[in-house]
Amino acid sequence: MSSAADHTPLKNPPKVPPPPKPSSSVLVISPTNQILLLHRVRTSSSFASAHVFPGGALAPEHDGEIPAPDSPLRHEDGEAYRLAAIRETFEESGILLAKNKRTGRLFTEIGDAEREEGRKAVHGGKVGFREWLDEKGGVPATDSLIPFTRWVTPTNVLKRFTTQMYLYFLPLPTSPTTALEEDEIVIPTPTPDGGIEHTAARFLPASKWLSLARANRIILFPPQFFLLSLLSPYLATTITSATSPIPSPAALAAERSAFQAFLDQPRSYKGREEVSWADACISPLALGKGLYGDLGTGTAVLGLHYAGPEVEAQGRGRRGIREWVVVTRFKKEGPRDVDIRRAEEVLDKGAKL
């Protein structure tokens, strides 16, 4: 089992860091453009007590061949990463990101009891995920996953992962409805895994998740906070309370189009071409010098420009994001007071990223 300490920077990290384990994670976007987060239990195997996107480690028995540690494909999007993303989402939330083999539409023909039985069987290793899904008449919707950065855990942390992040947009509603129920839209209904790893699963607008984190009511680690910050200006922007009218399908589609345009636009920073969101590889790097003094004692500043030693050693030019840094305070229970800042607002003008 793990604790927050497994994901908190060590004062005396090992000279030879443990290799990062391949994993996948998905930002599942609801039909009303809200984002699914799961609340991990205190004894969870990773990110204990935090709110996270569904995801987990690759498993060869379910996901196929995993690139070797020295392979150039180890830290890149690939079929095994995509299958793991869909399988872990199913195991952890019950949401099946699959298509009907006959119609090509979202696979919803399976009943709740049958789906839960399969979920437990796959999680328990009693049946292969692809074999179970094929028998039921579905195929994993791997082609609908949109790569959305990769994160490599820093070398000064006990548990390390190389995590491929994806976006998945569930189909838009065919007609508008009138109001939210308890501040959330749950279509299809996400459910926790019975307390194995999670105690809750729900959709909320990105802005609401960020508000809860800023108030320190929930724990969000830097990757989750940063990616939600990118989504927040575009998705579910008009849903502010349980009585907010749900936007029309056309308005929801317009939100998605605006966000897609943001993802697709060429990026540059200080006159230099920047990496796309799909190709960005980020290993948060603690920056301890050249900072302005308005952040307060004990605040860590994490640069997002570094791709990590394993990726750097491949010599393929992968890099992260220079425009932003993450600021946070690492507490016993995990990161607190997390926020993102423009790099030029925090770093001295002479600092180079």
UniProtKB/TrEMBL annotation:
Residues 19-226 form the Nudix hydrolase domain. GO terms for cellular component: mitochondrion. It holds the Pfam family NUDIX. SUPFAM superfamilies: Nudix (SSF55811). The keyword GTP-binding does not apply. Keywords: Hydrolase, Magnesium, Manganese, Metal-binding. Residues 11-22 have a biased composition (Pro residues). One of its GO terms (molecular function) is hydrolase activity, acting on acid anhydrides, in phosphorus-containing anhydrides. Residues 1-25 are annotated as: Disordered. InterPro entries: NUDIX_hydrolase-like_dom_sf, NUDIX_hydrolase_dom, NUDT19. Its cofactor is Mg(2+); Mn(2+). This is Nudix hydrolase domain-containing protein. The lineage of its organism: Eukaryota, Fungi, Dikarya, Ascomycota, Pezizomycotina.
